[in-house]
From TrEMBL:
PROSITE patterns: B302_SPRY. The lineage of its organism: Eukaryota, Metazoa, Chordata, Craniata, Vertebrata. This is RING-type E3 ubiquitin transferase. GO terms for biological process: proteolysis involved in protein catabolic process. Signal peptide: none annotated.
């Protein structure tokens, strides 16, 4: 954002009037007669006296203020109308009563006009009531859920089950269920949607109450209202959890004005408009418009009428002084929300409606320049804030409703289409394309706005927009990060998704623009975050976990590595202060506190700024306090350390940072301080763009990925309703015509399913256009590649890799999952550029880091293990694992073969089983054979992947087991130990289940116990399969008697196999009885899977045993 007035410079002039034509041509000063005509033309009197009237007073800049004061005088009647009005009680400024007029938990906006339900059915009323006359207020519906809007008296008592309209003397309209409520309920009105305006009208002269939806009357809802002494009605609303609305009692112009509509003629808003200020603002706007439509011609000595769209500000002193007089009175009025919306916004919208796009843009740009030039900073800020909020209220819910024609009904079943179904599908696809084109227009406008906010060349002596945006953006991320210790101010995830995609577009535009002017920089396709950003403290990551643990701990344990690799030395005093913070967060040592640099100083160096409240929260830790005060000494890279070269710096808060702190200058590298030797000397791009990219990745981790997953449910709902509708239509065809009662019910169900399917189909069109389009897929794919490059560069720094925030690995894993699972089948990941290379790079990261000792967080280690386990389930990703370098493959298998004790072994064992599945005895099935008989409908579940064994990784496993005398025994002993534990637990649980089933009294087995029982059985089978794989690949481990451990391992194996066979194969045993119960949750427990695994081991032992003999 440029500094005020920076775009235009006016030198000081002597505005002395003269009739010298030549001097007029040079200086722009006009003679007295022309100035008089001009000022009378601009400041015409309210009764519009003709400028040619001879009786008018001569005007100049000396007496113009007096004339302007007379022009802005308002009749006494208008001034008196601002007082108390009969029929209304309460404050003149009407808001929601957040102190005592509510029930339940509600979140109320700062202006006390917006409310969000935060409990089952909360209720709130206004601060002002009415007892006589005709009154109206408006409600903007922000969500279309369960709400009851209307009026109530002060004696109405509500609770979490009963709200407005559920008690006597309370009346409500419910557009969600399309009903009206007053103790009882009947059908009324039409259904509302997000963005609709509900007008609530009460006529206490006739005793009637009615509602309007988007300016259209819904008719009289209630008559014979109770009136008289003690009866006064408050606007009120009851709304369920997460529903939201915004009230307008008259603080802004009503959307559907009571004076222009016959259905509400004579009704007035509860809050009076500022009539006096409104009249003055309209008169001043008329003067301003006159300036734009009149041009001075000093050569001819006359006024020239012209179109306002052709007006240009050229710096003529006469015009500038005239505008200065206008804005002296106009500027204070433009800080009021009612006048901004009624006067300024209406004026700007009029400009947009009349001119061409080019003329409109030029004209609006000049109007904003004039506001910036003639208004004070605080006035401009208030005015533009109110203007943007008014535009947001006006257009936030403006519908884009293309004609989707006949609605398509998607189904996962592939079958031949009839002519009608083909017609419906094509019409639906055409509607989706029209919708997408309309949305693209809006998206492009949003990208253009973000480009303005990311502009770093508009400083003109002030602060550039990009650095203001960075400060706001970081605060936005902080507010939406979880784990604050208090309720976070969450941005709706739908907005996060849209914001992320527009931000990526604007970011890549500036990134490639910088590359065009700096050949040594990189393209956005090669973008990544340099690793020094994670440990030099220049970017605040709040309380987000690092790969190696808390930042304060890492700075203490890795201080030597920071000094040797990044030329960063931590101040010992700061380390001591951080240690004391760890011991006692509230009691800081006096010496450390006095020596610690002050957080910041206010202007003129007078007083320290107040400490941010979030910095003192108990959960923020100790790490963030250290972050905000840490002082580090940085030396010039690649030069010997010396005391004179040490530069004391400290990590600044987001508010304190300047452009130099981010971009750097001379020896200061800004965000890139502490560059490790592995990183190139030339910068990738501007440092500020790196921080924007870092924030975009953090935003994806906060809520975007979860929202992408939720949207998949829309497609699932469409399929379910399509199947339900198809089944209902089949039943209708088969139903006998004589059964009219059944036909009526089926027809009713068919109508419900069809309407719901049409609604979901429209919603699915929106989802595909705004969330799952090809362009959005490319954005997520770009983020995935950025994360992969960032992790690769961070890994090269050795121990400093531990400073990387965990969310980089999380985003790499989750974005791949989103691309694979959420965007299909419309868009396939295989179509993306560089798909095979990206899979291989991700495979290398998972293979290397799932057992990386630098990563200490339990959650992120589990995520890496689960991601690798999922990776080996699919042929294309398993082939990617096989394509990584051989040394990395061997290292991965070595980590998988590490002893199972004291680590999460179940996932590791499952990975080994997936590598073997398809090679074992009777192990080539996709679905367990016994389930195909009992549950044949589940045989084609998409989650069941065909076996895809890896002979390459099996060979690596065999080679490693043959190496060294201790590798195979330690691994196999741990497998046998876990098998003994898992099978023993399984037997103990089925004994409890059998005992519960044999009791005479009716009882139920806990579903969690059944799930644990089935899990132990599955673990036993998978451990047996790993033993089968080991015996097949390296039989000599058990059968080579020259090995000292072979006999012991074979004896243990035989004992366990004997135990399994005794428990499973004995006639009428416990296992048989539990299997025959067929309890839900124990479907996988059967003879086949465990006996086949044992048989495979025995067969391999016999085959290889005979060969060895």
């Amino acid at each position: 954002m440029a500094s005020k007035g920076a775009g235009m410079s006016f030198s000081r002039k002597s505005y002395r009037l003269t009739s010298d034509a030549e001097k007029t041509r040079v200086t722009g000063i006009v003679h007295e007669k022309l100035l008089n005509d001009y000022l009378h033309r601009i400041f015409s009197s309210p009764d519009h006296v003709s400028p040619a009237a001879t009786s008018r007073k001569s005007l100049n800049f000396q007496n113009l203020p007096e004339h302007l004061d007379q022009l802005l005088q308002v009749d006494n009647e208008d001034e008196e109308s601002q007082g108390q009005v009969e029929g209304r009680l309460g404050p003149s400024t009407v808001v929601l009563d957040h102190t005592g007029g509510f029930e339940g938990l509600l979140l109320v906006d700062d202006d006390l006009l917006g409310v969000i339900g935060h409990s089952n059915f909360g209720t709130i009323r206004s601060t002002t009531c009415v007892y006589k006359g005709k009154w109206v207020y408006e409600v903007l519906i922000s969500s279309q859920g369960l709400m009851q809007i209307g009026w109530c008296t002060i004696n109405c008592r509500f609770n979490q089950e009963e709200g407005v309209g559920d008690t006597h003397n309370s009346y409500a309209y419910d557009g969600n269920r399309v009903r009206k409520w007053n103790v009882t309920t009947t059908n009324y009105g039409k259904a509302w949607a997000a963005g609709d305006i509900v007008s609530c009208l009460i006529d206490l002269d006739d005793g009637t109450l009615s509602f309007c939806l988007n300016g259209v009357s819904l008719g009289t809802a209630f008559e014979n209202l109770s009136r008289g002494q003690g009866m006064a009605y408050f606007p009120a609303i009851s709304l369920s959890f997460k529903e939201s609305v915004a009230f307008n009692f008259g603080s802004r112009p009503l959307r559907y004005h009571f004076g222009k509509m016959t259905v509400v003629a004579g009704f007035r808003p509860l809050q009076d408009p500022p009539c006096v200020d409104l009249v003055r603002a309209q008169r001043l706007l008329g003067c301003f418009q006159a300036v734009l439509s009149v041009e001075l011609d000093p050569m001819e000595g006359q006024l020239v009428e012209k179109e306002s769209s052709e007006w240009q500000l050229q710096g003529q002193p006469t015009i500038l002084l005239t505008l200065a007089h206008i804005f002296h009175h106009f500027a204070p009025l433009l800080c009021k929300v009612y006048l901004v919306e009624a006067v300024l916004m209406s004026f700007l919208l009029g400009i947009v409606e009349k001119g061409t796009p080019a003329q409109t843009q030029s004209m609006v740009h000049q109007v904003l320049d004039l506001l910036w030039l003639f208004m004070e900073d605080y006035e401009v800020q208030d005015c533009l804030k109110q203007l943007m909020m008014s535009l947001l209220r006006l257009y936030r819910f403006s519908p884009i409703v293309p004609d989707l024609g006949l609605q398509g009904r998607e189904s996962k079943e592939v079958k031949e289409e009839t002519a009608e179904e083909r017609l419906r599908r094509r019409a639906y696809e055409r509607g989706c394309q029209r919708l997408k084109k309309r949305i693209e227009v809006v998206e492009e406008l949003q990208v253009q706005i973000l480009k303005l906010l990311l502009d770093n060349k508009d400083d003109n002596g002030g602060e550039a927009s990009r650095y203001i945006f960075l400060t706001k953006f970081r605060k936005f991320l902080q507010e939406n990060a979880s784990g604050r210790g208090n309720m976070p101010m969450l941005c709706p995830p739908e907005y996060m998704v849209c914001f992320l995609h527009r931000l990526i577009s604007a970011l890549r535009y500036y990134w490639d623009e910088y590359k065009a002017s700096n050949p040594h920089a990189s393209f956005s396709e090669e973008a990544y975050i340099p690793p020094q950003i994670f440990y030099n403290g220049k970017v605040d990551y709040f309380d987000l976990q690092r790969l190696g643990g808390l930042l304060s701990h890492l700075r203490k344990t890795l201080k030597d590595d920071l000094a040797s690799k990044a030329n960063i030395v931590i101040d010992p005093l700061e380390l001591q202060a951080a240690t004391m913070d760890d011991l006692d967060e509230d009691d800081e040592p006096t010496q450390a506190a006095t020596q610690r640099p002050m957080q910041s100083l206010a202007m003129e160096g007078a007083l320290p700024l107040p400490r941010p409240g979030w910095l003192s929260s108990p959960t923020l830790g100790r790490a963030n306090r250290f972050l905000s005060t840490a002082a580090v000494s940085l030396m010039t890279p690649r030069r010997p350390l010396s005391t004179s070269e040490k530069v004391k710096v400290r990590t600044l808060s987001v508010e304190q940072r300047t452009r130099e702190d981010i971009e750097g200058s001379h020896w200061n590298e800004g965000l890139l301080l502490g560059r490790p030797p592995e990183e190139p000397e030339q910068p990738l791009t501007e440092n500020s763009l790196l921080e924007v990219l870092d924030g975009a990745i953090m935003m994806y981790n906060l809520s975007v990925h979860q929202q992408l997953g939720k949207m998949v449910g829309v497609s699932d709902d469409v399929n379910e309703y399509a199947m339900a509708l198809r089944d209902t239509e089949d039943k209708l065809r088969r139903c006998p015509k004589r059964r009219k009662d059944i036909l009526a019910e089926l027809t009713k169900s068919q109508k419900v399913f069809s309407e719901k399917l049409d609604h979901l189909s429209r919603r699915l069109a929106w989802v595909h256009a705004t969330v799952y389009s090809q362009e959005k897929m490319l954005d997520i794919y770009w983020l995935l590649r950025v994360c992969l490059r960032t992790i690769e560069h961070g890994d090269r720094t050795g121990s400093l890799f531990a400073f990387m925030p965990e969310f980089y690995l999380s985003v790499a894993i989750n974005s791949y999952s989103a691309l694979k699972n959420y965007f299909g089948p419309v868009h396939s990941m295989e179509e993306l550029p560089g798909y095979e290379e990206t899979l291989t790079r991700l495979a290398a990261i998972l293979a290397k880091h799932f057992a990386d000792t630098r990563i200490v967080g339990t959650d992120i280690r589990d995520s890496l293990m689960q991601a690798l386990a999922s990776y080996v389930c699919y042929p294309h990703s398993l082939r990617a694992v096989e394509r990584i370098p051989e040394d990395q493959r061997i290292a991965m298998v070595r980590n998988l073969l590490a002893p199972y004790e004291q680590r999460p072994w179940a996932q590791t064992n499952w990975i080994l089983v997936r590598l073997w599945r398809g090679c074992g005895f009777g192990y080539r099935y996709t679905r367990l054979p016994h389930l195909l008989k009992t549950k044949p409908e589940d045989a084609n579940l998409p989650s069941l992947q065909k076996p895809c064994p890896s002979t390459l990784l099996q060979q690596h496993m065999a080679d490693l087991l043959r190496q060294g005398p201790d590798v195979a025994p330690s691994f196999l002993n741990s497998v046998l130990n876990q098998l003994n534990w898992a099978f023993s637990e399984f037997i103990g649980m089925i004994q409890e289940i059998q005992q519960a089933a044999e009791r005479l009294e009716r009882n139920f087995v806990d579903s969690r116990q059944l799930k644990v029982c089935a899990t132990c059985f599955d673990l036993s089978v998978s451990l047996l399969r790993v033993l089968e794989m080991t015996i097949t690949l390296v039989p000599e481990i058990f059968l080579d008697w020259t090995r000292p451990t072979s006999e012991m391992l074979l004896r243990r194996l035989a004992q366990l196999l004997n135990q399994v066979l005794n428990r499973v194969t004995a006639e009428r045993n416990l296992f048989d009885r539990v299997v025959t119960l067929r309890l839900p949750g124990l479907e996988s427990v059967d003879h086949y899977p465990i006996l086949v695994a044992v048989t495979g081991i025995l067969v391999r032992l016999l085959v290889h045993g005979q060969a060895s003999e």
